[in-house]
From TrEMBL:
One of its GO terms (biological process) is signal transduction. One of its GO terms (cellular component) is plasma membrane. This is Odorant receptor. Pfam families: 7tm_6. The keyword Metal-binding does not apply. It comes from Anopheles culicifacies.
Length: 359
């Protein structure tokens, strides 16, 4: 089986993306699936613009509220405001990088899709297992982020309900996220509209992060599967080797040479794909590690200074950020170990076969 990558233009615009099914659904909530860049509908473009504007408004409002609270000496208010701000900045920059590198990411996705279509039957089990693992990672990551966003959204209502039963009159209305507003949030209409807006703002925040990071993990898992497929091909070839036939038969030697050349070309194609993945996702990887480190510092401080039920909102938030670090670290590790195995197993075998039969 040759590892030929079809030009992007030959792939149908309505391609079946089962390999990244869940990642695609999450990113389309934001409106941005890189492989649709040439056929993206106008309403998805509008949705992208609305989500970016929503994140921008929240970032400005939450930052200003945190700044005013800090000036007034209210550290807990400042921390509660700034913590989600960093997540929104992270999600906003992720999508900006996606838009800037959209063509590169599109090429990576289409190359992978074409490779799946051309896969040999012996690779099916390996690819299926890794694709399933990628979907599971995506589901649990999205679930943790969704749960954290839900806690942010419902916690104020629990507090207001408790205050109401304690006889607080008039009831002080609390917003899901703390931000500076140009109007009085205690007005019933403004409070209702602002609450809806802030809860909606959680959608682009969590989808921009979970979809983007899960897609990167899924790509790395597939590339890892391709390196495993190379090993399967080498094992399949070694079963057919006959030292006596190789010495006495020119045709047998030529067959082995052709097989090794084909495997070598495929191996180089996978290396080129790794290079494409690195070029497409490097800014996002750097952003993720930097922002996650900042968020974890803020969360640790928040757990110390924030009082009451708000402490519980930070637990799933922290677990979600740790899950992001795990996904990126795990994805990078399996690719590194595939290219350069720690014990040299597979790589030495590959080099020795090439030396024996090609050179």
């Amino acid at each position: 089986m040759m590892y030929n990558v079809a030009p992007v233009s030959k792939l149908p615009p309505t391609a079946n993306w089962d390999i990244f099914k869940l990642q695609r659904k999450i990113l389309l909530i934001f409106g941005l699936w890189p492989a649709d860049r040439l056929v993206r509908r106008w309403y998805f473009k509008l949705l992208i613009a609305i989500n970016l504007i929503t994140l921008t408004i929240c970032m400005v409002g939450e930052f200003l509220h945190g700044l005013y609270a800090y000036r007034d000496g209210n550290l807990s208010e400042s921390i509660e405001s700034i913590c989600p701000t960093v997540s929104r900045i992270s999600g906003f920059l992720r999508m900006v990088f996606y838009l800037i590198n959209e063509e590169k990411i599109d090429n990576v996705l289409n190359h992978i899709r074409q490779a799946v279509l051309d896969q040999h039957p012996r690779e099916h089990d390996v690819n299926k297992r890794l694709i399933t693992l990628g979907q599971q990672f995506t589901f649990y990551l999205f679930l943790m982020m969704f749960f954290a966003a839900c806690l942010y959204g419902v916690t104020p209502f629990f507090i207001m309900a408790y205050s109401w039963f304690q006889g607080q009159r008039p009831l002080v209305k609390l917003l899901p996220f703390k931000l500076a507003l140009p109007f009085d949030s205690q007005n019933s209409l403004y409070f209702f509209l602002t609450t809806i807006f802030l809860n909606y703002a959680s959608a682009p925040t969590i989808t921009s992060q979970s979809g983007c990071d899960a897609l990167f993990s899924g790509v790395c898992l597939y590339v890892y599967g391709q390196f495993q497929a190379i090993k399967l091909e080498l094992k399949a070839l070694s079963v057919t080797l006959d030292n006596t036939a190789l010495k006495d038969s020119f045709a047998e030697t030529r067959r082995v040479n052709e097989e090794l050349r084909r495997i070598s070309k495929r191996h180089q194609a996978i290396i080129d794909l790794v290079t494409e993945v690195r070029n497409a996702f490097t800014p996002i990887v750097l952003l993720t590690y930097t922002v996650t480190a900042i968020i974890m510092c803020i969360v640790c401080v928040a757990m110390l200074v924030v009082e009451g039920i708000y402490k519980f909102t930070y637990l799933p938030y922290a677990f979600a950020e740790l899950a992001l670090l795990f996904l990126y670290s795990y994805s990078g590790t399996i690719i590194r170990d595939s290219v350069l195995p720690k014990d040299g197993t597979g790589l030495i075998e590959y080099i020795s076969l090439i030396r024996c039969f090609i050179f």
